[in-house]
Amino acid sequence: MKKIMSLVASLTVISAVCAGVLAYVDSITREPIKATAADNERKAIRAVLPPGTEKTESVGSALVGKDASGKIVGYVAKGMDSGGYGGDVVLMVGFQPDKKTVVSYKVLQAAETPGLGMKLTTPEFSGQFAGKDGRSLSVKKDGGDIEAITSATITSRAVCRAIADAQGKLK
């Protein structure tokens, strides 16, 4: 019995030390991680807005991009779909002033299969969405005109739904 209590005490001390170290590391890394995520989001916004955008203004859960004269040149919204192969697919999507036509998208979060599903970041795949209505997107297997990533149809469908989600946030 004495040996068991000794082992329990040792494991308790080791667990407490590990928990303390993890809490310390979390406190040190939390703010830099938040800052990096915010910086990535700002870069994605700039990348998906149409050319000529000088400033952005918040409009509900989206942003409107304006040129130097104040004319609207496009919109940006974040879209998400939880049906990706590896979980959530979160995109920053740019739209033309008509709030329908996709300019482009940038991936903010995706845990898809390396080498297959992560091809959602390639220009060959993402370029298919430019100039199309975000709400009517679907892969060819579903009767649409988006060529799915080979062996990653689930990811391709998730991208289509995330773009439609982003478009739905435009008022």
Give an overview in words:
The chain is α+β, with helices and mostly antiparallel strands. The chain has one domain. The chain is built from three helices and five strands. It has a five-stranded antiparallel sheet with strand order 1-2-3-4-5. A hairpin with a 5-residue loop joins strand 2 and strand 3. It is elongated. The N and C termini lie far apart (69 Å). 30% of the residues are buried.
Short description:
It is built from 3 helices and 5 strands, in the order αβββββαα. It has 171 residues and is of the alpha+beta class.
Mean pLDDT: 91
Overall strand count: 5
- Give the total of domains: 1
Largest sheet report: 5 strands, antiparallel
The end-to-end distance, rounded to whole angstroms, is 69 Å
Q: Can you give the helix content as a percent range?
A: 25-40%
Q: What oligomeric state best describes the polypeptide chains here? A: single chain
Low-confidence stretches: none
What is the radius of gyration computed over CA atoms, rounded to a whole number of angstroms? 22 Å
